[in-house]
Amino acid sequence: MGTASRASLEELRRSVAAVGADGRARDLAPMRAGSDRAPLGHPAADRALGGGLARGALHTVMPAAPGDAPAASGFAALAALRLSAGKPIVWIRQDMAVREFGEIHAPGLAALGIDPARLMMVAAADARDVLRAAEEVLRCRAAGAAIVEPWGDPKALDLTALRRLVLAAEGSGTAALLLRTGGHGGPDAGVTRWRIAAAPSRSGAWPGLGPPAFAATLERNRLTGGSGEPGRWMLEWNHERRLFEPATNPVAGLPDAPDRPAEAGAVVPLRAAG
Amino acid sequence: MTLATARAIRPDLAVAEADPDADRAFIAALADRAERWTPFVGFDGEDGLLLDVTGAAHLFGGERNVIEDAAARFGRLGLVVRAAIAGTGAAARAVAECGRGGVVPPGGEGEAVASLPVVALRLDPATHGALSHLGFKTIGALAARPRAPLAARFGRALLDRLDLLRGLAEAPISPRRSLPECIAERRFAEPIGHAEDVRRTILVLAADLGRILERRGEGARALELLFFRADGAVRGVSVETGRPLRDPAVVLRLFRERLDALADPLDPGFGFDVIRLSARATQPYDAETARLDGREDFEGELVALLDRLAARFGTRRVLRPSLHDTHVPERAAPFIPARRGNAALAADWSTFLPEPEEAPARPIRLMEPPEPVEVLAEVPDGPPIRFRLRRVLHAVVKSEGPERIAPEWWRAPEGTPTRDYFRVEDAEGRRFWLFRDGLYGRETERPRWYLHGVFA
């Protein structure tokens, strides 16, 4: 790592620390409109959301296709980072999710700008434990965000269970991200629901991979002050500024591009929104 | 006596194989049950229990009652109980084993053991043989002799035992379990069994314990609740805390989590007649811990959250990442119990942050173990062109690599292949971390490929 980037890292650390102090001061007072929003960074998306994702609320993140589980995991983690306001992020994942999609890898999260020192993980044996742990975490003001990852479409994940999570999150101001790896649908109590697909990364000066890119579809938008409308945006993660920016790769298409055609030989299961 | 001789005398003799393990387990179970009279329970040899009831007997209305209670409770298990209370453990054991048991009044040990046979000394067989050869039948007879010649003939050990039995010297009892730092308990004339009663009792005990801890300027780091059922069965539940604790409401909440999560729930049977809360480990409770400004408050809440999660799901399921000085990905950043301090805080994770505009070098999820994939490469040591994962064919559009990761020769078995890692992106923008296991031509002729992780 060069000295220049090290210096900017120090600067970043300072600014993150400042956000932390601010976040604490804010959290001691009751939540007020304006402070309870975490902008994603993408202007059009934030406009549609009425300023950003809401803290103290439940957001559902679904992979667009089973193969998009990694992209959905990444989006959930990054949204959690935006929402956490310098406070710890607790990732509650079911053991089965690890068998299919891999264990959470802290170096990879660190590479996105998520500080592993603020990361905690609860390894839950089944969906019921995931929900129990999630409720416990969401009731706690000290946690910034909880990523709740049951596996598949468990029976325990019914509307009552989801409403309990919503109530817990509303009470504490802690954000909940329901990450549905391996899931197909079912009841939803979130203020937003996202369907996330991987998107080709930007080709820069180098022939290799560019920063992570996502095709994010907002299917459910019930945030106050927002457009209430669904939307679809190409997002690119900027790990230096720690926010999403509009993706600029022409291959990835314009922000309002329809689903890109499947490559020959590749299997892209299409799924109806909603 | 041999078995054959015994059978010649009594042909209907019932014979059972000796099972020392089962005997030990049984004695240990009795020791658990004996904790109802005092937490200070020790083993005495392989076949006895020694309880220190100093300062505890009044709870039962006197020492006599302790013995009667013990005889009655263990008697219900079908045991013949011999119990005695005396100023020293050795005297109590001698009176229980060789005498009539009961309570030896303070200072009365010499008199109580005087009529007991010399075997009550529990010395080696040779000494006992020699003593009986010399005509010593009772402890009293031995005690009446001048000490110097006895010491010259039998050594110091005999006199030491004699003094212990006669209450003239004391030997410490070593407790079976480490003693709690402090305890609070409630005894019920009418056993309780309702969940609500139990909950209220725990809260009352936690408040009692909190007051004791406050006087000592301490907080508890490990707590244990013991439930003594009226029928003698004992159940123990423990919790550990991340920082010194004495708030009764928090203690109650921790135990409720723990009790709710028990695979084998607490069964009150006909009710509990004793419930004891003990602090098994304590730590100074300094002002720092109790500071009320926002930051400390949140940190305290976070620790309390981790405590509750660990109580419910077990410490091995509440984790934090740690960072190790190794290039082998599966060993670089394992999750460890969050309790073991914040290892991640001290670690320098910044080396993983890529240069601006660049892609992460490490995946966000790691396959455990790496998953085999079929790969097509233009040349055997080149990057992958296409690969098949879970029956789906992926065309590689972008790739970066190889990043060569050699096995750690001091840890890996001889012949562990070198891995060449590639970051690849397929036509749909999905990003994978693949490696070729073994250097083509040098380590293997047909290297195999694996998926080791996925990128966001």
Brief synopsis:
The complex is a heterodimer of chains A (274) and B (456). By secondary structure, chain A is an alpha/beta fold.
How does this structure look, described?
- The complex is a heterodimer of chains A (274) and B (456).
- Chain A is of the alpha/beta class.
- Chain A has one domain (35-200, 211-252): P-loop containing nucleotide triphosphate hydrolases (Rossmann fold, 3-Layer(aba) Sandwich).
- Chain A has helices at 3-28, 43-49, 69-83, 95-101, 106-110, 127-138, 159-172; strands spanning 37-38, 53-54, 58-63, 89-94, 103-104, 119-124, 145-149, 175-179, 192-199, 213-221, 231-238, 243-246.
- In chain A, the strands form two sheets. Chain A has a nine-stranded mixed β-sheet with strand order 6-4-7-8-3-9-10-11-12, sandwiched between helices.
- The longest helix of chain A has 26 residues, at 3-28.
- The radius of gyration of chain A is 18 Å and the shape is globular.
- Chain B has four domains: 24-165, no CATH class; 182-313, DNA polymerase, Y-family, little finger domain (Dna Ligase, domain 1), CATH 3.30.1490.100; 318-349, no CATH class; 365-454, no CATH class.
- Chain B is built from 15 helices and 16 strands.
- Chain B has helices at 3-9, 20-34, 63-76, 89-98, 109-114, 125-133, 139-143, 147-154, 156-165, 195-216, 248-260, 287-290, 294-313, 329-332, 343-346, and strands spanning 41-44, 48-51, 84-85, 102-103, 182-192, 218-229, 234-245, 272-284, 318-321, 335-337, 365-377, 384-389, 392-405, 419-426, 431-437, 448-454.
- A six-stranded antiparallel beta barrel of chain B has the order 11-12-13-14-15-16.
- In chain B, strand 14 (419-426) and strand 15 form a beta hairpin.
- The chains are: A alpha/beta (274), B alpha+beta (456).
- Chains A and B meet through helix 1, helix 3, strand 5, helix 5 and strand 6 of A and helix 13, strand 9, strand 11, strand 13 and strand 14 of B.
